[in-house]
Design a protein that fits this description.
It is built from 6 helices and 8 strands, in the order ααβββααβαβαβββ. By secondary structure, it is α+β, with helices and mostly antiparallel strands. It is globular.
Length: 192
């Protein structure tokens, strides 16, 4: 590739970065409408989440390229807190990328609204659930490390959601059709 071919690419990258910065400023001023403009940029990753227990909803851009946005990380940590105790954990940013990639695997260019059944789970909550539920709660659950999330996606069959997660080969995938959710985590690749 000759140097003349590189110059337009660099200019185009600069233009993209300038437009992205302008969109971020515009997004702050316009709220959700501005976020949807920013979310359409190729290197920007966003999520829309509804929590089934707290009835909270968020739609945000959490990363741009390789950079996770600190304010978004804090918002997501709080959103995915232990809904029993209110304890806020540190969520693995790769879990957000996993959700984003599941969304991409499902073929949607528009952020889909994941329903969250369980995000972070504190050790006391985990122990209590383990002793009161007839199985299904691991003693060393990755929920306690902020590396697991239980989800469903309205309008998407549960088996299709599971298959999209499995296709990524990027962590654990648990299928719970009776309880209507799929567990995904950033641990080793495995399925149940």
């Amino acid at each position: 590739m000759t140097r003349s071919h590189l110059i337009p690419l660099q200019h185009s990258r600069r233009s993209f970065l300038r437009r992205s910065a302008q969109a971020m400023l515009l997004g702050g001023a316009l709220g959700l409408a501005g976020r949807s403009v920013l979310a359409s940029a190729p290197s920007v990753r966003s999520l829309v989440l509804d929590h089934t227990h707290t009835h909270e909803r968020i739609a945000l851009v959490y990363a741009n390229g390789e950079q996770y946005l600190p304010q978004a990380m804090g918002t997501l940590n709080h959103f995915l807190r232990d809904h029993y105790s209110g304890e806020v954990g540190q969520i693995d940013p790769q879990l957000f990328d996993l959700l984003h990639n599941v969304q991409q695997a499902l073929g949607s260019g528009v952020p889909l609204s994941f329903q969250i059944i369980s995000g972070y789970r504190g050790p006391l909550t985990n122990a209590r659930l383990r002793s009161t539920r007839g199985g299904g709660v691991a003693k060393h659950s990755l929920h306690m490390e902020g590396k697991a999330i239980d989800i469903r996606l309205p309008g998407v069959p549960l088996a299709e959601l599971r298959d999209a997660a499995l296709s990524l080969k990027a962590g654990g995938v648990g299928y719970y059709p009776r309880d209507q959710f799929v567990h995904i985590d950033t641990g080793r690749v495995r399925t149940w």
